[in-house]
Specification:
The chain is mainly alpha-helical and 285 residues long. It contains eleven helices and no strands. InterPro entries: BaxI_1-like.
Length: 285
Amino acid sequence: MGSPVFSKSSAFSPNADRSQGGASAYQGQSAQAQYGQPAGYGQSAGYGSVPDAATLGSMYGAPSATTAQTGRLTYDDVIIKTVGLLAIVIAFAAITWFTVPELFFVGAIVGLVLGLVNAFKREPSPVLIVAYAIAEGVFVGGLSAYFEAAWDGIVLQAVVATFATFTACLFLFRSGRVRVTPRFTRWLLFSMVGYMAFSLINLVVILAGGAEGWGLRSGWFGIAIGLVAVGLASASLIVDFDSIQRGVRNGVPAKFAWTAAFGLVVTLIWLYIEFLRILAIFQSD
């Protein structure tokens, strides 16, 4: 379990059938039917003509079709769409920061609704995913403006920490130093459920007026909880990378690059917010 986006999508499931991707299974069967089985008695191979030796040689010597040519998911698709969504988030964050930062609450609500809708959709919707990026841009921009006004330089620190963590997680995953196993996934699931429960309790305490400022997350305890949250978000990134790798290997349709990019953006925004909160608590104390 990484981002809920991947856990809800059967395309990135560990048991995903290659036939779901369409391209790999279908083409393998088609190739076998054309070249792996002899033509029946009285029938000619192909469309009524028997290919000569030169034609067969060129057919077998031709390079294999790439994943892009067969309409399957590629890492390039995921990278391009992820960068595009992040560009949208940053653009609308900047607009909100310099114009109406008070709209961050609206962006948070709209982003939450669109996030849930996109997470539970079986088929990716580029329009809804882009709309989510816009809403999150409004939320992140307004919230960042508030934090920057209170603690000068905190936004840049959070951005650097976020992308440094992303790079470290990608290196750990690609190097094989961290492997996504069933035990790792179960640990992450239970830990995230516990963190969500704590966050809800903390929100209730703040709304009820039982605590001021950060609620139960004040002081060094709040910093410790923030570091735990960063650890969970980092583990989620690694699981996200594993899900994307599985999707590429399973040959799922290229349209699921939108799902993968959306999942990565969700986790990156979560990571950025956690770094903002940790830095703010630390500087407040």
